[in-house]
Amino acid sequence: MTPVLTFFNNKGGVGKTSLVYHAAWMLSALDHTVLVVDLDPQANLTAAFLDEDTLADLWNDQASSSGRTIHQCVAPLTKVGDVGDPELQRPADGLYLLPGDLALSGFEDLLSTEWPNCLGSTNLYRAFRVITAFWQVVQKGAGQSGADIVLVDVGPSLGAINRSALIATDFVAVPLAADLFSRQGLRNLGPTLRRWRDDWKKRRGNWAEPDFDLPTGDMRPIGYLIQQHGVRLSRPVKAYDRWARQMPAEYSRSVLGEETPATALDPQADEHCIATVKHYRSLVPLAQDARKPIFSLSAGDGALGSHAVAARGAFHDFRALVENLLQRTHAASAAAERPRSAAPPAGPV
Ligand SMILES: Nc1ncnc2c1ncn2[C@@H]1O[C@H](COP(=O)(O)OP(=O)(O)OP(=O)(O)O)[C@@H](O)[C@H]1O
Ligand SMILES: [Mg+2]
Fold first, then answer.
1. Least confident of 123-127, 182-186, 242-246, 345-349
2. Which of 38, 75, 134, 252 could cysteine-pair with 262, CB 3.0–4.6 Å?
3. 3-class SS of residue 24
4. Distance from the CA of 17 to the center of ligand 1, in angstroms?
5. Is 14 in the pocket of ligand 1 (CB under 6 A)?
């Protein structure tokens, strides 16, 4: 199975979509084959990759056999059909996209209905088929594209769509801003991940002999990424620091469930901090207009002088960020595979 990394936090607007977009481009620039999946019904990630005409065409496509968006792939389950084959977009060599769809929010009810049915004694096939539909589609897409990693973008909710998205997830990276909302987001996120993981384990245990492969639902947190910009750019640096310095301890306590103090007060020195993400200011609208990652902006896109220097700097920042992500996913996989006798004392995650 191809490893699935989801960027998730209960706080919205913290740069999840932007990070998935840039990490995906960077992975392909580093010769990885990557599949990006947009499981946020707001579909912002899809809109970052595809122009409006392409989007209008995808979303107009009502043919029941087409799998051009995630919703079209899972929609047959709302009737008597099964999970469909995805038809992927290919924004670049080695970079594949399974587009999102505003219609996906209509699938939430079925996910909620079938969740308790996974604990029942009849009709388990259908209940598990629905609950694992995202995972089935994602793995089909990964097989088709030959991806070595899948990146998933989700919205900030703790509802049934995201529960199924997380069941399809091996690794979770947590984007944060340095503010009160992100701290509260972490406080909700940690217990929710633990509950979803346990509830899924119970359900898997209820189906002794499954008729098809099921995901493990590890959803293992591999660290957080902190945005250097706040909600309001005018916010004084002191306010930023005050909240930023609470994040290492909050992440340890709420997400990892560790009682031991965090290794640092400063996120930059914290072992769980994957990266601090700069505010790229006027490069952001330039990149959105050019439909390119910030680090690929050229003079032709309007990135001249100091903009060109900043774009080159962004390339180094995102390369380091992606290398760090990969290192953490490899380390987490290795730790999970280590025989129990050789494993360090079990952590609470
Ligand atoms: N590093 C950055 N520098 C400047 N602006 C950024 C940066 N990252 C994200 N933004 C901007 O911040 C806004 C929110 O970012 P984004 O959409 O990625 O957040 P999100 O967490 O996916 O939001 P949602 O929870 O609504 O899905 C967007 O307008 C985006 O362009
Ligand atoms: Mg988003």
1. 345-349
2. 252
3. helix
4. 6
5. yes
Tens digits of per-residue pLDDT, 233-251?
556 678 888 999 999 999 9
DSSP assignments along 324-347, one per residue: HHHHHHHHHHHHHHS-GGGSPSPP
Hey, which residues does 276 pair with through a beta bridge?
226
Q: Which of 314, 338, 250 is closest to 23 using CA atoms?
A: 314
CA–CA dist 173, 142 (Å, integer): 20
Residue of the CA atom closest to atom 10 of ligand 1:
15
| pLDDT, tens only, 99-154 | 999 999 999 999 999 999 999 999 999 999 999 999 999 999 999 999 999 999 99
328 vs 281 pLDDT, higher one = 328
CB 291 within 8 A of CB 48: yes
- Residues around the ion ligand 2 (C-beta < 5 A): 16-17, 44
Structural domains in the chain plus CATH codes: 4-282 (3.40.50.300)
Residue 16 backbone class (left: φ over 0; alpha: ψ -120 to 50; beta: rest):
alpha
Q: Give the nearest ligand 1 atom to 228 CA.
A: 1
